[in-house]
Amino acid sequence: MFTLIHYPFCPFSRKVRIALSEIGIEAEMKSVEPWNLPVEFRTNINPTGEVPVLFDPIGKYICGHYPIVEFLYETTSCSASIIGTESFDRAEVRRLCDLFDRNFYDNITKLIFIEKIYKPLNGNSASNINTQAIRAATTNLKNYLLYIESLLNNRHWLAGENITMADISAGAQISILDYLGHIPWYAKDLTPNFPELKNWYQRLKSRPSFKSILLDKLPIRKPSSTYANLDF
Amino acid sequence: MFTLIHYPFCPFSRKVRIALSEIGIEAEMKSVEPWNLPVEFRTNINPTGEVPVLFDPIGKYICGHYPIVEFLYETTSCSASIIGTESFDRAEVRRLCDLFDRNFYDNITKLIFIEKIYKPLNGNSASNINTQAIRAATTNLKNYLLYIESLLNNRHWLAGENITMADISAGAQISILDYLGHIPWYAKDLTPNFPELKNWYQRLKSRPSFKSILLDKLPIRKPSSTYANLDF
């Protein structure tokens, strides 16, 4: 059986957890805090010190969400549906994965994660929180939610008629923000302007692959009221 | 014939240019400045406003180096050698690509690019240059060069015995820094501590796939003396 070394509030770890479940691959979960890993992790496993890392029972480590997900596409026959069956479909899925894994993460999730999870977990007081970073992330978020809504006006899932890694990448990022109450589901200036977004995320988080994600808990903060609620 | 929309000093554009040449695919090159693209580029081609974009003659755009490179693996039979013939080999190639495309870029190339290329090209005077960012990038660079050297002590190319996308990703980043004179080939505290790095980069930039890269010129700055010199 595979072992996944992951951090529950790392969006890329969540992406792989959801993908494994959607493909139907069982893996033992080993939860770590990336900032508390032993030195040997960098020297023997992943020089970047990052998770997720998938440990294959034959004794090899596959480091990073991109290599892991492509490895799963290549080695599991039942993964075609989540990456697309034709090369141009896969290019569209990968474009959207990259948009969420890199642009969305860099401009939104990373900023909020540092201020609302990393700093409090590492003993920073409220006065050390960079509110400007949070405001910038909140502004950026609206543009991305608008883009998701525009996609969903023409497609049932983000990349087309079927759920793919694009939805999983997006959902992994959004679920972190939703835990922290940063998705404005009930803001007057948002709902009902983003009905497709809400409908899409309801469908996504109702899937069995999301179940373990919705049970994750931070020691410093309870989840928002919408987080584990399927009919929020 | 494919058309590649690229910016000559974008490392990800260079990665795709080199990959196309190594695989033996001809493409028409359309050079753009990402910060001067018309609004229609975002609405009709790539919402992130980024290059590279590969235009397929059947009328489809493939956006981003990750989707483009994976598309080339899937659709061209002669690409196996640059991605690896076995799943675990490919996982190692992709780990290294990600290390250079994301970690190396975020911590080094991006910082230097903004200060030494983007700002001068956009009318910023020398007093607007963030020297602290350049110093941080220079410090980070030494650690990555050390890592490359350690890999090359055991491998002829970065991912093994053959040239792969790992070398191409690394070379694309390093070539931007080399143009700007930021690779300390002759620094007393570096050479001869990194002989494998220099040998590797000499082999890499002597390949025909690097030829057009070495002809690129910035309007604001001449290349360093080592840039186009194969026996530097």
Describe the structure concisely.
The structure is a homodimer of 232-residue chains. Chain A has helices spanning 11-23, 39-45, 65-75, 80-83, 87-121, 131-152, 165-179, 195-205, and strands at residues 2-6, 27-31, 53-56, 60-63. The first copy, chain A, has 232 residues and is of the alpha+beta class.
Rg on CA atoms of chain A, Å:
17 Å
Largest interface between protein chains, with number of residues from each side: A-B, 28 and 28 residues
Enumerate how many helices of chain A there are, as a single number.
Answer: 8
Mean pLDDT of chain A: 95
The 3D shape of chain A can be described as globular
Series of H and E elements of chain A: EHEHEEHHHHHH
Strand order of the largest sheet of chain A: 2-1-3-4
> Using DSSP, what is the number of strands of chain A?
4
Topology:
2 copies of one chain form a homodimer.
Chain A: E1 2-6, H1 11-23, E2 27-31, H2 39-45, E3 53-56, E4 60-63, H3 65-75, H4 80-83, H5 87-121, H6 131-152, H7 165-179, H8 195-205
Parallel strand pairs in A: 1-2
Antiparallel strand pairs in A: 1-3, 3-4
Task: For the structure shown, list the relevant keywords.
homodimer; 232 residues; alpha+beta; 4-stranded mixed beta sheet
How does this structure look, described?
2 copies of one chain form a homodimer. Chain A has 232 residues and is of the alpha+beta class. Helix content of chain A is 51%, strand content 8%. Chain A has 8 helices and 4 strands, in the order E-H-E-H-E-E-H-H-H-H-H-H. Chain A has helices spanning 11-23, 39-45, 65-75, 80-83, 87-121, 131-152, 165-179, 195-205; strands spanning 2-6, 27-31, 53-56, 60-63. Chain A has a 4-stranded mixed beta sheet, with helices on one face. In chain A, helix 1 (11-23) runs parallel beside helix 3, helix 1 (11-23) packs across helix 7 (165-179) and helix 5 packs parallel to helix 7 (165-179). The radius of gyration of chain A is 17 Å and the shape is globular. The termini of chain A are far apart. The mean pLDDT of chain A is 95. Chain A binds chain B through residues 46-48, 56, 60, 62-64, 66-68, 70-71, 74-75, 87-88, 90-92, 94-95, 97-99, 102-103, 147, and chain B through 46-48, 56, 60, 62-64, 66-68, 70-71, 74-75, 87-88, 90-92, 94-95, 97-99, 102-103, 147.
